[in-house]
Specification:
Blueprint lengths: L3 E6 L6 H15 L4 E4 L2 E3 L11 H9 L5 H4 L2 E3 L5 H7 L6 H14 L2 E5 L7 E3 L2 E2 H8 L3 E6 L4 H14 L4 E7 L7 H13 L4 E5 L12 H11 L8
Parallel strand pairs: 1-5, 1-8, 2-5, 3-4, 8-9, 9-10
Antiparallel strand pairs: 6-7
Length: 236
């Protein structure tokens, strides 16, 4: 069993938190694993006391983790920006060694750790250090989350190509139906990506508006993943 899965996206707003939390819920409730989660950098939160239903809280609840929120999310910024400019806005500095130390601690404590990125691979964390560099440093297997709608072919192929260029292990791609458009692009994109991807297309996560409107339902998340996504890659 792999020790971690890094969930990246082709862009912001593609639903990485939905997929990350569903994976965490599936592995913990269906497979009975001790699952840790990590969102190393989160932005767009005014104060720690106002977190509410943010990405970190969703991940923690979906996994059943009892880890301290500051281990799961060591860096929280107010501005809705990439980590490098968000930190600059607050005159803060980011310590990659600290983040790696926390990741190693979580990996040692749990059967598996689900790590959620922000934006895409080339979002800067510190000067000239990107999420792709974090994936490479941690040697974490990757799941790519992509939109179902128009534009996804280019973004998905570019993302997977870059991961291949840095030697990352890509478990597969999940298309997330964030818009529920049902248009011709959404209907044809899965087949086109199957044709051109050199990694598995794991399935299409269905359109689920207001999924977290009443909190986090771990069983529902696990069921949505199991019914729509090839989960065998998570069990190797």
């Amino acid at each position: 069993m792999m020790k971690s899965v890094f969930v990246t996206g082709t862009d912001t707003g593609v639903g990485k938190t939905i997929i990350s939390s569903s994976i965490a819920a599936y592995l913990s409730t269906v497979k009975g694993l001790d699952v840790g989660v990590m969102k190393p950098f989160e932005s767009g939160i005014e104060t720690a006391g106002d977190r509410g239903l943010d990405d970190t809280w969703i991940l923690k609840t979906a996994s059943g983790s009892e880890d301290d929120v500051n281990e799961i999310n060591p860096y929280l910024f107010k501005a809705p920006l990439a980590p490098e400019p968000a930190a600059a806005e607050e005159n803060a500095s980011i310590d990659i060694d600290l983040v790696t130390s926390l990741y190693d601690r979580l990996a040692a404590r749990h059967d598996v750790v689900i790590v959620e990125g922000a934006g895409g691979l080339l979002v800067p964390i510190t000067e000239r250090f990107f999420y792709a560099d974090l994936i490479r440093a941690w040697r974490a297997p990757v799941i790519v989350v992509s939109r179902l709608t128009l534009g996804t072919i280019n973004h998905t192929l570019l993302t997977c190509g870059h991961l291949r260029s840095i030697g990352a292990k890509v478990l597969g791609v999940i298309l997330n139906d964030t818009e529920g458009a049902g248009d011709i692009a959404s209907r044809t994109n899965p087949a086109m990506l199957k044709k051109y991807l050199d990694v598995p297309l794991l399935g299409v996560f269905p359109h689920t508006p207001d999924l977290f409107g009443k909190g986090v339902n771990r069983e529902r998340l696990a069921d949505l993943l199991a019914r729509n996504i090839d989960c065998s890659v998570l069990e190797d």
